[in-house]
Design a protein that fits this description.
Length: 513
């Protein structure tokens, strides 16, 4: 008789239910696994055999045939060990087939029968819930993560014996987590870097506040030591807390990538991914033989920080253009395509030239015009056109450095204004399917970024003077909408638009003079 055990697999971020069919036939003792298994699943033959015997159960004398249905779907991962073992134990009448009918199983087995944690548990469990499975058994170390999926009963087991005992004599205790309560308890977190420790740079701080409020991309250009990197490190401290939806979305990504901590099963803080300039295009956007999320996906709903941005190879920077526009990345391979979310805030910092002192008021630039042009050419016009705020960060004067009497505004004070502006956006767009002003489509810009006739005339002059592109036009309006939200203004006023225009593309030609 063929026995069926439920489990699931994930391709990209999409879960698919898998039926593990187990049958025994009279033949030379062996385990045959079919249904497009990967190497990890094929190696389960030895793990399963040893785990079952070392747990005190008998292993079939004949040939065991395991089919992973549907057979045309590629299966990956070691979490198929447990469902295969359960199917064999049902075949040996250790567990009844009726008892496991409404259960699914996820877990890797050690040779001694203990269960080891696996990656990607949350998306697997969420997928099983959507497919109508009511109960799931996972390794004990994954139980907190699995319990984040509401609407499905989750059990944690330490070994194969615990799983068998659950159906025979001693049921396991279910695990439940109140996601909303867990997230609220984790909001109050201390940050290593705080804006109260950053002297001066009021214009840059204001630009960072606007960027955080509307999730706008930002580029800082300035001499070495002007505070660009320090302010970038302070930036996470003013970002608003994650919503439940965002936290679960991020947890799924980090779970699949194997980066989720067993001590903290839920992502409670927005990611801040600081990437070195030696990163490859595949490292940034994701990929590989088995496509995995790249840095832009790991920075989803958070920040991708590129320090010394002009030092990155142009090929690496250019791969950011499409994700910045579409907020997602599609990785295509011969057999399938995988789509990953990439709604990240791009935060860049760079020097204006190789020596770093182009346009500096105190130190002379030693670079030739050819060196400067070659250095700046790594940032193409289309890429710069996608960066909403572009600011110059001048070096602090001696008076500013030595002035200890000035009390700088703390990150907590700035964050309170950012959170208020984000709440305005959340309530405004709750029926539009977006969360921030940076996500506004051309259709929604017409609806929510209206300006009066007088302001429109000024904007027309600015478009001609600064040669703004159609994309830049939209981004200035979205930026003005965020500035208005920070000002608690229902409409975009003339002062909001004028301020947004101040953050236009940096004029490097002016710095050369």
């Amino acid at each position: 008789m063929v026995n069926k055990v439920n489990t699931a697999t994930v391709i990209g971020l999409n879960p698919y239910i898998v039926e593990v069919e187990v049958d025994t036939v009279r033949s030379i003792p062996n385990i045959s696994i079919v249904g497009l298994p990967d190497t990890a699943i094929n190696e389960a033959r030895d793990r399963v055999r040893s785990a079952i015997r070392n747990s005190g159960f008998t292993f079939p004398d004949g040939k065991v045939v395991v089919n992973l249905a549907p057979a045309d779907l590629k299966k990956e991962g070691s979490h198929f060990d447990l469902p295969i073992s359960i199917g064999i134990l049902v075949e040996e009448d250790v567990i009844s087939s009726e008892a496991i009918k409404d259960y699914a199983f996820i877990g890797e087995l050690s040779l001694d029968g203990s269960l080891r944690p696996v990656a990607g548990v949350l998306p697997l469990v969420l997928g099983l819930k959507d497919f109508g499975i009511n109960n799931v058994i996972v390794p004990q170390e994954n139980v907190q993560e699995a319990a984040l999926a509401q609407g499905i009963t989750v059990f944690g087991a330490k070994s194969l014996c615990d799983v068998v005992s659950h159906f025979v004599e001693s049921p396991l205790e279910p695990t439940a987590i109140d996601v909303e309560k867990y997230l609220k308890n984790s909001i109050e977190q201390e940050y290593t870097y705080d804006f109260k420790d950053v002297k001066g740079q009021q214009k840059a701080k204001k630009a960072l506040e606007i960027a955080a409020a509307g999730n706008h991309n930002l580029l800082m250009t300035g001499s070495p030591g002007s505070g660009k990197t320090l302010m970038a490190k302070c930036f996470p401290s003013i970002l608003p807390p994650l919503t439940i939806q965002e936290a679960l979305e991020l947890t799924k990504i980090y779970s699949i990538s194997g980066l989720l901590s067993s001590k903290e099963p839920l992502m409670t803080r927005r990611p801040f991914r600081a990437v070195h300039h030696t990163a490859s295009p595949n490292g940034i956007i994701g990929g590989g033989t088995v496509p995995k999320p790249g840095e832009i996906t790991l920075a989803h709903r958070g920040v991708l920080f590129l320090d010394e941005m002009a030092e990155f190879p142009r090929a690496v920077l250019e791969v950011l253009r499409q994700p910045l526009e579409d907020s997602e990345i599609v990785i295509s391979r011969a057999k399938h395509s995988i789509k990953y979310p990439a709604k990240f805030l791009l935060l860049g910092a760079m020097n204006p030239c190789p020596c770093g002192f182009l346009g500096d008021k105190e130190k002379q630039c030693t670079c030739s015009e050819f060196q400067v042009n070659r250095y700046l050419s790594r940032l193409s016009g289309p890429l710069l056109d996608r960066i909403d705020l572009q600011i110059e960060v001048p070096r602090l004067s001696s008076d500013e450095l030595l002035n200890y009497k000035v009390t700088e505004e703390s990150s907590e004070q700035i964050r309170s204004r950012v959170v208020k502006a984000r709440n305005i956006q959340y309530n405004r767009y709750k029926n539009e399917g977006i969360l921030t002003n940076s996500e506004l489509t051309p259709k929604l810009i017409k609806k929510y970024c209206k300006i009066d006739d007088e302001t429109n005339k000024i904007f027309k002059v600015a478009i001609v003077k600064y040669q703004l592109s159609g994309r830049r036009y939209d981004r200035v309006l979205k930026l003005a909408r965020t500035i208005a939200d920070l000002d608690n203004s229902q409409n975009i006023e003339q002062k909001h638009l004028m301020q947004a225009l101040q953050y236009k593309m940096i004029d490097f030609d002016k710095l050369k003079q």
